[in-house]
Specification:
It contains twelve helices and no strands. By secondary structure, the protein is mainly α. It is flat, with a radius of gyration of 22 Å. It starts with a helix and ends with a helix.
């Protein structure tokens, strides 16, 4: 039993090593050359809603340095996404048919694109609404906002990663349908439970205001509907029923 698992573990270690190695290389490149303009891009939505009396601060001596590390690592991860998805496909492809193995380019392109679309939706739609609500809630006359740069970057990257991951739903469905693990009927029957999970995930990953939570839950519900259509195209329930009748 363990001898059967050994080749898979060796292959998994190889794919993880390549993925982690690509992140590390990109991390050093970004840390050396690009972290400052990327940080400016990250902080732009917050600066847009701060008034003239507010500004970003750091409260610990090492906070700026560790913030640069966070920015570089997150950006390195984002830049390495095509390699990570490619390595993931290479790991699962031995269990696929020859015609299914040829879907590597659509999978890598689709997975990377959906993650970036989710992150872009978060940056250009969710974050402006969410930060404007949180900063200006109750008026700004009594309090002056002075957000910590370290805490802000951590919160920002959590939001972008959460939305990017949420938008992977159709791609995950595509892979599971190719493997024969889900059908359109399976997803339809699970829809009521999916709704509960979607709103729970939205509450965990977004700021504590109902508008931002709905801005995440709404697209996820639409993506779940798209996932049903993908499963129906790739692995429809009707095809399985016909096979059972023929048998």
């Amino acid at each position: 039993m363990f001898s059967d698992l050994k080749p898979h573990l060796i292959e998994l270690r190889k794919r993880l090593a390549i993925s982690v190695g690509s992140i590390i290389v990109l991390f050093f490149v970004i840390f050396a050359l690009f972290w400052q303009p990327i940080l400016d891009w990250m902080t732009f939505p917050l600066k847009e809603v701060l008034d003239e009396n507010s500004h970003m601060i750091f409260t610990k001596v090492q906070e700026k340095f560790f913030t640069a590390l966070k920015v570089s690592f997150f950006t390195g991860f984002m830049a390495a996404l095509p390699i990570i998805f490619w390595q993931f496909w290479l790991f699962v492809s031995p269990g696929l048919y020859a015609n299914e193995k040829k879907m590597v380019l659509p999978f890598v392109t689709g997975a990377t694109s959906m993650f970036l679309i989710g992150a872009a939706f978060c940056y250009y739609v969710v974050i402006p609404f969410g930060f404007d609500f949180l900063i200006n809630f109750g008026g700004t006359e009594q309090f002056t906002a002075m957000p910590s740069i370290g805490e802000y970057v951590g919160f920002f990257t959590k939001l972008l990663f959460g939305f990017g991951l949420a938008f992977e739903m159709p791609v995950i469905t595509f892979l599971l349908a190719v493997l024969g693990l889900v059908t359109d009927k399976t997803l339809k029957e699970f829809f009521r439970y999916a709704l509960v999970i979607i709103f729970m995930v939205s509450a965990l990953l977004t700021p504590p205001d109902i508008l931002t939570q709905f801005l995440m839950a709404g697209p996820m519900i639409l993506l779940y509907g798209l996932s049903i259509l993908i499963a129906k195209k790739i692995n429809p329930e009707e095809a399985e029923e016909l096979e059972e009748d023929d048998a």
